[in-house]
Amino acid sequence: MIPGKLFADGHELLPDKRVGKGGEGEVFSLRNRPGFAVKTYFPHLVREREPKIKAMVSTGLADGAAMVAFPYQVVVDGRGAFAGFVMRLVEKHKEIHELQTPVSRQKHFPKADYRFLVRVALNIARVFAQVHATGCVVGDINQRGVLVSAEGTVALIDADSFQIIHGGKPYPCVVGVPEYTPPELQGKSLNGLVRTVDHDGFGLAVCLFQLLCMDRHPFSGRSRAAGEMPLEKAIAEYRFAYSARDTGMTPPPGAVRLEDFTPRVGQLFEEVFSPFHTGRRPKATDWIAALTELESALRPCSRNKLHHYARDAPACPWCRMEGEFRRPLFLDTELGAITLPTGGFDAATGLVLDLPALLAVINAVPVPASLSVVLPAVPAPAGPSQNAI
After folding, report:
1. Dihedral sign from CA coordinates of 334, 337, 339, 340
2. Could you count the other beta carbons within 10 Å of the beta carbon of residue 292?
3. Around Cβ 386, how many Cβ atoms within 10 Å?
4. Residue 221 forms beta bridges with which residues?
5. 263-272 and 284-297 helices cross at what angle (nearest 10)?
6. How far apart are CA 289 and CA 125, in angstroms?
7. pLDDT tens, per residue, the chain with 389 residues
8. What region, left, alpha or beta, does residue 369 occupy, with left being phi > 0 and alpha being psi -120 to 50 degrees?
9. Dihedral angle at the C-alpha atoms of 91, 96, 97, 99, nearest 10 degrees?
10. Cβ–Cβ < 8 Å for 318, 329
11. Contact (CB, 8 A) for 169 and 176
């Protein structure tokens, strides 16, 4: 439903189509403000959200982070009552999980190779560094709040939930996703809790790990102890499944190894997920330096032109993983030659073909908008056959 009359700095806004809806309100593009959108809160949240939004606008956060959808202008209704805010409209971006999951990546980012993933990881670190430079803490890090374009640019949305301290008064981020919440905050109420950049450091590292490691969560693995090991418990107990430390966990089969990265990237993952670095976790700026080094260290695989990996790695991790999964992790969009991982052979049924892998390749073939077929000229009509008389 299009909202009623809305105004920002005395100028009327003309909401167009709805581009988003969540638990707090709705987001609409603006007919008279290209490149901007308006978020209106549901009535029961207006009074609670007003002080924080006004503080964020008065601080000028939107001017310091172009790829973050910070509140830009306060919006009021026809009676002059607070209704929401104007922000930059993020267009032609997809949620990060569409890129980090191999199956979704082949559909939504078919041209993405590992060089693209590393560049996006670097841009994620850069945009987090911008947020932290403003004095804000993201807090609620999750897959829906990080958006990626086909060119690899990264944007953060839902910035009105970020923590800000204005005039000595904290406006905390009161929500969070357990998968990205650091061990020391697992199971605790976030209501009124003032978070730190160090807390963000954990969630940022989880996001980077998932992107660089084919959607694997760093604390998801097989426990060597008896009984179940829920993800939240593994995080709370610092059981980093890929660590050289004895965490009582082993990575799932066919997973990336820390030795597949440059030494510095592997070291940062060890530090950020270790109990010995709580309070002094690697910052976004540390990741910028390490990922820049990783990007420069990437080399092509001699066996598969689609594969790029760090020259420090003992062998191509993607060849190893595709051999175990028996499906491609990256697609060749040039279609000069398509190579599927080696299939299996069953003595009873014969050759076993990986249909999901084959379908992923087929679905990546672009469908032309139109076809033009030249028909041969029709010769003069033949006379009747003598046999037919």
Report:
1. positive
2. 14
3. 6
4. none
5. 150
6. 10
7. 677 899 999 999 999 999 988 889 999 999 999 999 999 999 999 999 999 999 999 999 999 899 999 999 999 999 999 999 999 999 999 999 999 998 899 899 999 999 999 999 999 999 999 999 999 999 999 999 999 999 999 999 999 999 999 999 999 999 999 999 999 999 999 999 999 999 999 999 999 999 999 999 999 999 988 778 999 999 999 999 999 999 999 999 889 999 999 999 999 999 999 999 999 999 999 999 999 999 999 999 999 999 999 999 999 999 999 988 888 898 877 654 455 555 555 555 555 555 555 555 555 555 555 555 555 665 666 566 565 55
8. alpha
9. 90
10. yes
11. no
* DSSP code per residue over 127-169: HHHHHHHTT-B-----TTSEEEETT--EEE--GGGSBEEETTE
Unique residue bearing structure tokens 């804000």: 136
Which pair of structure tokens corresponds to residue 21?
Answer: 């809806």
